[in-house]
Design a protein that fits this description.
The chain is α+β, with helices and mostly antiparallel strands. Helix content is about 30%, strand content about 30%. It is built from 9 helices and 18 strands. The protein has helices spanning about 10-15, 15-30, 45-55, 65-75, 95-100, 105-120, 150-155, 165-175, 235-240; strands at about 5-10, 35, 60-65, 85-90, 120-130, 140, 145, 180-185, 190-195, 200-205, 205-210, 210-215, 225-230, 255-260, 265-270, 280, 285, 290-300. The chain has a 6-stranded antiparallel sheet with strand order 6-5-18-15-8-9, covered by helices on one side. Helix 3 (about 45-55) runs parallel beside helix 4 (about 65-75) and helix 7 (about 150-155) crosses helix 8. The chain is globular, with a radius of gyration of 19 Å.
Length: about 300
């Protein structure tokens, strides 16, 4: 009998996560799996429970929720052979979108988990991020952002409506009121970009914020990061370019570059602009700059 650990975010999808979790549990049991509930009151506690269960022996970890739950799962399984199943029941679901997984369809998601456990998982890249002064790091598989997009992300996380990318549109207006360009030094594999800027995003997948196509050509299994570097836009300039992010048209702007690299060091430069906001990865707060980011090809097995 396959032993599956399930971690549920009960608040995902405007509170629908708890119901989705019960459905996942029941459907997996009906398919003959031994199911262990690893959920906890906080993401940190749930991560600890999932790691402990993984050491004791699991055939898979299945997370139920949005990108934050995928982030939790990746930090349990990265660098191991333990596969990760994702039941996308959140509001953003950018990682599930990238992997071609069902979104908002519990039965279809459970079918994917069952089939992939039988046929074998897919290997994708994971990304390490941490302070350059320390060896400790955490993992992400989506996008790390540390510009106005991160400031918008932080504000959007405090909103309860609307769902998906609509929260980012609502959060944009108040963030613009206090915006001035940030100062960056970004050290890539082959060059250094030092400039005032509007955003720096390190992408392993194309989407961020529930459907904003921040890095249109990013692939989660090519061993490379797509780093989006945007120069010092004015407030009207941010307003003008923002709608184009939905379809990835912002990358055509002469002040926006996309550079492919395997590693990135992002540092604040106070003489060039304001201090960049704290970085977010997979929609979860990672910490303040400086940060070193490095891709680890094929570090995660996903049930997709």
């Amino acid at each position: 009998m396959r032993h599956v650990g399930v971690v549920v975010n009960p608040t995902a999808g405007k509170g629908r996560g708890a119901s989705a979790g019960r459905q996942v549990h029941g459907m997996l049991e009906a398919k003959g799996f031994k199911v262990q509930d690893l959920s906890a009151p906080t993401l940190a506690q749930a991560t600890d429970r999932a790691r402990a269960a993984a050491v004791q022996g699991l055939d898979a970890v299945v997370v139920v929720g949005g990108d934050g739950m995928a982030h939790l799962g990746v930090n349990v399984v990265a660098g191991t052979a333990l596969p990760l199943g994702i039941v996308a029941a959140g509001t953003g679901n950018d990682i599930a979108r990238t992997l071609g997984l069902p979104r908002g369809d519990i039965a279809a998601s459970v079918d994917v988990v069952e089939r992939a456990l039988h046929d074998g998982p897919r290997r994708i890249d994971a990304v390490r991020v941490g302070s350059p002064q320390h060896a400790a790091h955490e993992w992400f598989v989506g996008v790390l952002s540390c510009g106005i997009d991160a400031a918008i992300n932080a504000r959007a996380n405090e909103l309860t409506w609307p769902k998906g990318s609509g929260r980012y549109v609502r959060a944009l207006v108040p963030e613009l009121a206090s915006f001035r360009p940030f100062g960056y030094r970004v050290t890539l594999d082959d060059e250094v970009w030092e400039s005032a800027g509007t955003l720096v995003a390190v992408a392993n997948v194309p989407w961020i914020g529930g459907g904003l196509k921040i890095a249109p050509d990013a692939q989660p299994d090519d061993g490379l990061l797509d780093v989006v570097l945007a120069g010092p836009f004015t407030k009207p300039g941010v307003v003008k370019i923002f709608p184009g992010i939905y379809r990835g048209r912002h990358v055509r702007h002469p002040s926006v570059r996309v550079v492919r690299t395997r590693s990135v060091l992002i540092e604040p430069v106070g003489s060039l602009g304001a201090a960049p906001p704290a970085a977010f990865a997979d929609g979860e707060r990672v910490g303040t700059l400086p940060l070193r980011v490095q891709v680890d090809p094929g570090a995660v097995s996903v049930l997709a």
